[in-house]
Amino acid sequence: MSANPIADIDTDALTALIVLRPKRASRNRHFSLFATPHAREARRRAAIIRSLVRDIAGGYGPARVVSWNAVSGGDVELRYAMPRVAATRTARLSEVDLAIARIALAARGVRLVPAAVAAREEDHARVDALLSRSANLG
Quick check: is 138 in a domain? Predict the structure, then answer.
Protein backbone atom coordinates (compact mmCIF):
# COMPACT_ATOMS: atom_id res chain seq x y z
CA MET A 1 0.00 0.00 0.00
CA SER A 2 1.20 3.49 -0.78
CA ALA A 3 1.25 6.46 1.59
CA ASN A 4 -1.90 7.71 -0.12
CA PRO A 5 -4.60 5.03 0.41
CA ILE A 6 -6.90 6.37 -2.28
CA ALA A 7 -4.17 5.89 -4.88
CA ASP A 8 -4.44 2.12 -4.32
CA ILE A 9 -8.02 1.85 -5.60
CA ASP A 10 -8.14 -0.06 -8.86
CA THR A 11 -10.13 1.12 -11.88
CA ASP A 12 -12.92 -1.45 -11.50
CA ALA A 13 -13.51 -0.59 -7.85
CA LEU A 14 -13.44 3.14 -8.56
CA THR A 15 -15.90 2.71 -11.45
CA ALA A 16 -18.32 0.87 -9.14
CA LEU A 17 -17.91 3.55 -6.48
CA ILE A 18 -18.58 6.41 -8.91
CA VAL A 19 -21.71 4.73 -10.28
CA LEU A 20 -23.18 3.34 -7.07
CA ARG A 21 -21.87 5.66 -4.33
CA PRO A 22 -21.25 8.99 -6.09
CA LYS A 23 -21.14 11.04 -2.87
CA ARG A 24 -18.20 8.96 -1.61
CA ALA A 25 -16.35 9.48 -4.89
CA SER A 26 -16.57 13.25 -5.12
CA ARG A 27 -14.05 14.64 -7.60
CA ASN A 28 -13.69 17.85 -5.59
CA ARG A 29 -13.02 15.97 -2.37
CA HIS A 30 -10.46 13.62 -3.96
CA PHE A 31 -8.95 15.91 -6.56
CA SER A 32 -5.50 14.28 -6.56
CA LEU A 33 -7.01 10.86 -7.17
CA PHE A 34 -9.08 12.05 -10.12
CA ALA A 35 -6.01 13.58 -11.74
CA THR A 36 -4.61 10.09 -12.35
CA PRO A 37 -5.04 8.21 -15.64
CA HIS A 38 -6.79 5.24 -13.99
CA ALA A 39 -9.33 7.55 -12.36
CA ARG A 40 -10.03 9.29 -15.67
CA GLU A 41 -10.64 5.84 -17.18
CA ALA A 42 -12.99 4.98 -14.29
CA ARG A 43 -14.93 8.23 -14.80
CA ARG A 44 -15.27 7.49 -18.52
CA ARG A 45 -16.56 3.98 -17.85
CA ALA A 46 -18.90 5.27 -15.13
CA ALA A 47 -20.40 7.84 -17.50
CA ILE A 48 -21.16 5.12 -20.04
CA ILE A 49 -22.74 2.89 -17.39
CA ARG A 50 -24.81 5.72 -15.89
CA SER A 51 -26.16 6.78 -19.27
CA LEU A 52 -27.01 3.17 -20.14
CA VAL A 53 -28.83 2.78 -16.81
CA ARG A 54 -30.72 6.04 -17.39
CA ASP A 55 -31.78 4.88 -20.87
CA ILE A 56 -32.90 1.40 -19.81
CA ALA A 57 -34.62 2.77 -16.70
CA GLY A 58 -36.85 4.77 -19.01
CA GLY A 59 -35.29 8.21 -18.93
CA TYR A 60 -36.44 8.66 -22.54
CA GLY A 61 -39.44 6.35 -22.38
CA PRO A 62 -39.37 2.58 -22.27
CA ALA A 63 -36.27 0.98 -23.77
CA ARG A 64 -36.33 -2.32 -25.60
CA VAL A 65 -33.29 -4.59 -25.79
CA VAL A 66 -32.75 -5.47 -29.44
CA SER A 67 -29.74 -7.75 -29.18
CA TRP A 68 -27.31 -9.16 -26.67
CA ASN A 69 -24.10 -10.73 -27.97
CA ALA A 70 -20.92 -11.99 -26.40
CA VAL A 71 -17.88 -10.58 -28.16
CA SER A 72 -14.16 -11.22 -27.87
CA GLY A 73 -12.43 -10.90 -24.54
CA GLY A 74 -15.51 -11.68 -22.46
CA ASP A 75 -17.18 -8.39 -23.33
CA VAL A 76 -20.87 -8.09 -24.14
CA GLU A 77 -22.42 -5.95 -26.84
CA LEU A 78 -25.82 -4.64 -25.81
CA ARG A 79 -28.04 -3.00 -28.40
CA TYR A 80 -31.28 -1.36 -27.34
CA ALA A 81 -33.89 0.93 -28.82
CA MET A 82 -35.68 3.91 -27.35
CA PRO A 83 -38.73 4.29 -29.60
CA ARG A 84 -39.97 7.52 -28.01
CA VAL A 85 -36.87 9.37 -29.23
CA ALA A 86 -36.35 7.18 -32.32
CA ALA A 87 -32.88 6.16 -31.20
CA THR A 88 -30.93 2.94 -31.07
CA ARG A 89 -27.78 2.59 -29.01
CA THR A 90 -25.06 -0.02 -28.94
CA ALA A 91 -22.80 -0.33 -25.92
CA ARG A 92 -19.89 -2.70 -25.42
CA LEU A 93 -19.37 -3.58 -21.77
CA SER A 94 -16.93 -5.70 -19.86
CA GLU A 95 -18.33 -8.30 -17.47
CA VAL A 96 -17.49 -6.01 -14.57
CA ASP A 97 -19.23 -3.00 -16.13
CA LEU A 98 -22.26 -5.13 -16.94
CA ALA A 99 -22.47 -6.30 -13.31
CA ILE A 100 -22.26 -2.68 -12.12
CA ALA A 101 -25.00 -1.65 -14.57
CA ARG A 102 -27.26 -4.50 -13.44
CA ILE A 103 -26.83 -3.52 -9.79
CA ALA A 104 -27.41 0.16 -10.60
CA LEU A 105 -30.66 -0.73 -12.36
CA ALA A 106 -31.77 -2.79 -9.36
CA ALA A 107 -30.80 0.05 -7.00
CA ARG A 108 -33.00 2.44 -8.99
CA GLY A 109 -35.89 0.07 -8.43
CA VAL A 110 -36.25 -0.82 -12.11
CA ARG A 111 -38.14 -4.09 -12.12
CA LEU A 112 -39.38 -4.53 -15.66
CA VAL A 113 -36.05 -5.12 -17.37
CA PRO A 114 -35.13 -7.75 -19.93
CA ALA A 115 -33.56 -10.88 -18.45
CA ALA A 116 -30.22 -9.91 -20.00
CA VAL A 117 -29.93 -6.87 -17.74
CA ALA A 118 -31.58 -8.19 -14.58
CA ALA A 119 -29.27 -8.35 -11.56
CA ARG A 120 -28.02 -11.81 -10.59
CA GLU A 121 -26.49 -13.18 -7.41
CA GLU A 122 -23.01 -13.26 -8.96
CA ASP A 123 -23.40 -9.58 -9.90
CA HIS A 124 -24.18 -8.69 -6.28
CA ALA A 125 -21.16 -10.66 -5.06
CA ARG A 126 -18.83 -9.11 -7.64
CA VAL A 127 -19.99 -5.54 -6.98
CA ASP A 128 -19.92 -5.99 -3.19
CA ALA A 129 -16.30 -7.11 -3.51
CA LEU A 130 -15.48 -4.06 -5.65
CA LEU A 131 -17.10 -1.70 -3.17
CA SER A 132 -15.27 -3.29 -0.24
CA ARG A 133 -11.97 -2.68 -2.07
CA SER A 134 -12.86 1.01 -2.19
CA ALA A 135 -13.71 1.21 1.53
CA ASN A 136 -10.61 3.30 2.27
CA LEU A 137 -11.98 6.15 0.14
CA GLY A 138 -14.14 8.49 2.09
Answer: no
76: left (phi over 0), alpha (psi -120 to 50) or beta: beta
Q: What are the residues whose beta carbons fall under 8 Å from the beta carbon of 10, sequence distance 6 or more?
A: 38, 133
Q: Is residue 2 part of a domain?
A: no
- Measured CA to CA, the distance from residue 15 to residue 38 in angstroms comes to 10
Q: Would you state the pLDDT for residue 48?
A: 95
Within 8 A by CB and 6+ apart from 96, the residues are: 12, 15, 16, 126, 130
Q: How high is the pLDDT of residue 25?
A: 66
Domain that holds residue 82: 8-133
Residue 1 lies in a domain: no
∠ CA(61), CA(63), CA(65), 5° rounding?
Answer: 175
Task: Please give the model's pTM, rounded to 2 decimal places.
Answer: 0.83
Span 87-104, average pLDDT: 93
